[in-house]
Amino acid sequence: MTTATPRTKLTTSAMIASFADPGQRTAPAPFGHALAALAEERPEIVGLSADLAKYTDMHVFRDAHPDRFFQMGMAEQVMLGAAAGMAEVGLVPFASTYSVFATRRAYDFLCLDIAEPGLNVNVVGGLPGLTTGYGPSHQATEDLAILRGCPGLTIVDPCDSVDIAAAVPALAEHDGPTYLRLLRGSVPTVLDEYDYRFELGKAAELRTGRDVLLISSGLMTMRALQAAARLEADHVDVAVLHVPTIKPLDREAIVRAARPDRLVLTCENHTVIGGLGEAVGSTLALAGLSTRFGQVGLPDEFLAAGALPTLHDRYGLSTDALVARIRAGLDGHTPWAAEPEPASA
Amino acid sequence: MTATASPPAATGLDPQRIERLRDSAYRIRRHALDMGEVQGQGYIGQALGVADVLAVLFGDVLNLRPTDPEWPERDRFLLSIGHYAIAAYAAFAEAGILPVEELETYGSDESRLPMSAMASYTPGMEISGGSLGHGLGIATGMALGLRHQGRPARVVNLLSDGELNEGATWEAAMSCAHHGLSNVLAVVDVNALQADGPTAGVLRVDHLTDKWTAFGWNARRVDGNDVAALLTALDELRDAPDRPSVLLCDTRPGHGVPMLETREKAHFLRVEAHEWQIARDQLTEGHQR
Q1: Which of A46, A88, A116 would you mutate first to test chain B, the one with the most B CBs within 10 A?
Q2: A113 near B CB under 8 A
Q3: Fewer CB within 10 A of the terminal residue: chain B, N end or C end?
Q4: What tens digit of pLDDT does each residue of A81-99 get?
């Protein structure tokens, strides 16, 4: 808890917080709108939620297709089991809750009922990584670490509203289990400024650069692009490889991009244990690539409650913190340090 | 315990129907003993205990096409309790879903009949068991989906009383009632036994009829080794158009084989090599009486 004088504006540890920058272009509830639109064409699409429709943008689908929405109550285990049962009889379910509940609480059901039979069930997890200031109960800092070990599960970590709008039909089309790290509410719109199209299982180089390669997923791609633009002014040339599909990982694209003459940093909204960073690290090692490599991600600890901008600064996910990390890496400081940088002033 | 006394057999049921199902239960037990002997072990106590329930389900309740286990309009039989696979395979063979000759591959390498039930291995096996407390949740979704699609098929989930320890079962019980899933029939094998000992000492699940009724279910409790009682209760359960139904079946592990029935109760019964033939003889003797 921060101690603040009465005159200082208090920060908030609210559950729902936006990570959009002030004035940034955003789209409202892109997941809900994409699912509702897809359901117009595909009658087998159904939606489920565990008492969190309103907070996972599922309410948009619910209101558009009330007969195809199933409220499962605050019971994540039966929600995922029931989603499996629906897929068994030919429906294509999207089941939403917060990431912490889908993974920590109901993993046995996701694993055995959905993934083992290879069903087309799409699990949608809100508040992935550090996207809420509510504290460890709601911060799914290790969802990727839990799920990457699940055979046959496709995992998508979208950057923005453009990614989400394209990912939803792709996930429905994919004949197998998927997990989507949901960005909800007013979601930044970023990737339409690039020559980019979401493709399941594919990484995309959004910008090229001689000095540094940032390999990023999720909202950290947005931060990576911002950091690259800022460093450009200082004549530091930063490439950004966006990896929206965490599993299966586009190893070819990563190996192709990770030339040994550049500093390579992974950027993820997740603990540095078991997520994108370690997946990329093992890919590089297995390919025999020896390169300066480091991870930007959340520390291996339970995080604090607080306001998101404060926390992103403190734990190294803000653009300021990322720029500092890149500079430190270029200066030869241990680029693999997993410890968080001190918050910049 | 509030076990309801079994209704007397004289309930107007067709004696031939009862006889047919008792014969079927006998053959299921025979198959189970044969499979147990191949491996020298197995959940034979449970299989013998639940055989009458399975005979009634497969012989009188489930709408299936044995030669077409994937028939889209079939009733779904979900075995939550994967370790009861030996009993399910015996029932599948009796129903014509599996060839009887295949049963001797039970638990062997490359067999379609693994010791714990797995959907991808076995025709007729709808879900994979092993982790308890999953079946009723999947049944919930299947029943919601079938109803949504306007299809009349029912979903029958066989659980055990030990499985009622799992909280997920009760999440699903609430959900079935909340959604008014009259196309769900839960059948609970109440054998009062689980891995660490009698259920009463591991985690009590007493007042079962009251519990399920309080959860919004149409519930009946019967002697699960009494075919006539099972049939009568199932007929009564069909009268609930607005809610799910549960049949609580008190069964005796090892039933039909006195040598095993009187043995110290164990989740995983040891049977010596020379005892399998004795068991078969006792079973046949008891059935012919």
Answers
A1: A88
A2: yes
A3: C
A4: 999 999 999 999 999 999 9
Minimal-distance CA residue of chain B relative to A117: B120
What's the whole-model pTM score? Answer: 0.93
Domain total for chain B? 1
Name the residue among A22, A16, A4 with its Cα closest to residue A126.
A16
Residue A78: which of B148, B155, B175 has the nearest Cβ? B175
Domain membership flag for residue B176: yes
Which residues from chain B sit within 8 angstroms of residue A84, using beta carbons?
Answer: 137-138, 141
CATH numbers and ranges of domains, chain A: 26-188 (3.40.50.970), 201-330 (3.40.50.920)
**Half-sphere exposure of residue B136, counting CA atoms within 13 Å on the CB side?**
28
Is B33 within 8 Å of B259 (Cβ atoms)? Answer: no
Task: Give the ipTM of the model, two decimals please.
Answer: 0.92
Q: What is the CATH number of the domain that holds B122?
A: 3.40.50.970
Which residues in chain A have Cβ-Cβ distances shorter than 8 Å to B138? Answer: 81-82, 84-85, 88, 113
pLDDT tens-place values along chain B, 289 residues long: 344 444 444 568 999 999 999 999 999 999 999 999 988 877 899 999 999 999 999 999 999 999 999 999 999 999 999 999 999 999 999 999 999 999 999 999 999 999 999 999 999 999 999 999 999 999 999 999 999 999 999 999 999 999 999 999 999 999 999 999 999 999 999 999 888 888 989 999 889 999 999 999 999 999 999 999 999 999 999 877 899 999 999 999 999 999 999 887 777 788 999 999 999 999 999 998 7
Residues A216 and A294: their CA atoms lie apart, in Å, by 12
Question: Domain for residue B8, yes or no?
Answer: no
The answer to the question of residue B141 being in a domain is yes
CA–CA gap between residue A305 and residue A136 (Å, rounded): 8
Among residues A115, A128, A125, the alpha carbon closest in space to that of A154 is found at A115
Task: Count how many pairs of residues, chain A against chain B, have C-beta atoms within 8 Å.
Answer: 101
Q: How far is A21 from chain B (nearest CA, A)?
A: 40
Does any CB of chain B come closer than 8 Å to the CB of residue A109? Answer: yes
Q: B51 in a domain, yes or no?
A: yes
Q: How far apart are CA B190 and CA B192, in angstroms?
A: 6
